[in-house]
Specification:
alpha/beta, 51% helix
């Protein structure tokens, strides 16, 4: 399990987070008919060993009318985009359905419950992989073959794309999480944290407040202020008060960390571009040298091993285009002068 996965998993083990995820980020009419009071976590004992190995995933179910809808939350922490995420989800959901068949005792008249696969991604690179499995399959298939191809789409929540989204006036805990994740200054982070203190003031929400404290300590501030230890705090209000007192110092450290990360990224990109350019130049130089050596051997084979000095000078200074021109002239030439377009010594 990735090092920060438990902090995310702990947050999305609370029904309030899952409800706000659906309300705020699944813009479909059927969400209005969901009975959020029925949200319940699918226990690990409910799924097979194969599926239980997906330790950073969370599975919930909720009533939609007379039916259950299963929500498969795949919390993705890798820094690079997985082009074949749809294929992975196809496997995971197949395992989930096998478990539902085994545990629910479905008979011949029962139907499988619908599943909504959701990918929560927090990598630095924006997600570019296709969210529809059909886009990964061979295109242009005849209808009689296309109809048998598997189908799957997943809902993507790429946290980085919400960097400029203002925090909504109405309470939404997932929006607050995204606000903390994408804050660009210490003041922005403190403002979102303050809203969380207001939204989670009920004593009954102590467990959820603690989950946010853990997330802020291990994830939220770690990437901006990795040398600061906040594990001694147990209350969100306490953490907010401490940050408010030191907001100026925090902001300066935050800005310095951002500059360092920007410089690191710039150097990395510059190095990659330099390597690409170097490889390209090296390949061109290698091909040019190979063409020059090939033409020299052809000339030596026809006109003798000891080529005149003026020929060697021209070969050494020739461009790729000149070498190609002389190579074509060599086919019909009877003398060295004819190869080099009647260029003679001293010209």
């Amino acid at each position: 399990m990735p090092p920060h996965a438990p902090a995310y998993k702990q947050l999305f083990s609370h029904p309030e987070m899952v409800a706000d995820l659906l309300r705020g980020y699944v813009h479909e009419a059927w969400v209005e008919q969901v009975d959020f009071a029925t949200l319940e976590r699918v226990p690990d004992s409910f799924v097979s060993d194969d599926l239980r190995e997906r330790e950073d995933d969370v599975i919930w179910r909720v009533r939609w009318g007379e039916r259950w809808i299963y929500l498969y939350l795949l919390i993705e922490f890798q820094s690079t985009v997985d082009r074949f995420m749809a294929v992975r989800l196809l496997t995971y959901i197949g395992l989930l359905y096998q478990d539902l068949i085994r545990t629910e005792g479905l008979d011949r008249n029962d139907h499988l419950s619908p599943v909504l696969p959701i990918v929560l991604y927090n990598g630095d690179e924006r997600w570019w992989a296709r969210t529809d499995l059909a886009d990964l399959l061979e295109q242009g298939l005849p209808g009689s073959l296309a109809q048998f191809q598997p189908q799957l789409r997943y809902l993507l929540l790429d946290e980085g794309r919400f960097a400029d989204h203002p925090l909504p006036a109405a309470r939404n805990l997932v929006a607050a999480l995204l606000g903390l994740e994408t804050s660009r200054t210490g003041e922005d982070f403190l403002q979102v944290l303050g809203r969380l203190v207001e939204w989670l003031g009920d004593p009954a929400q102590a467990s959820l407040r603690r989950a946010f404290v853990v997330w802020v300590s291990r994830v939220g501030l770690n990437k901006h202020l990795p040398d600061v230890d906040l594990n001694e705090f147990y209350e969100l209000q306490e953490m907010h008060s401490m940050l408010a007192e030191r907001v100026k110092t925090w902001s300066e450290q935050w800005e310095q960390r951002g500059l360092e990360k920007g410089l690191e990224k710039g150097l990395e990109q510059g190095l990659e571009q330099g390597l690409e350019q170097g490889l390209e130049q090296g390949l061109e130089q290698g091909m040019h040298k190979g063409e020059s050596q090939l033409l020299r051997r052809m000339l030596q084979h026809r006109f003798g091993p000891a080529l005149p000095g003026w020929v060697e000078e021209r070969l050494a200074a020739a461009s790729t285009e000149q070498l190609e021109t002389w190579g074509l002239a060599f086919v019909d030439a009877r003398t060295l002068e004819q190869v080099f377009a009647d260029e003679r010594p001293g010209q």
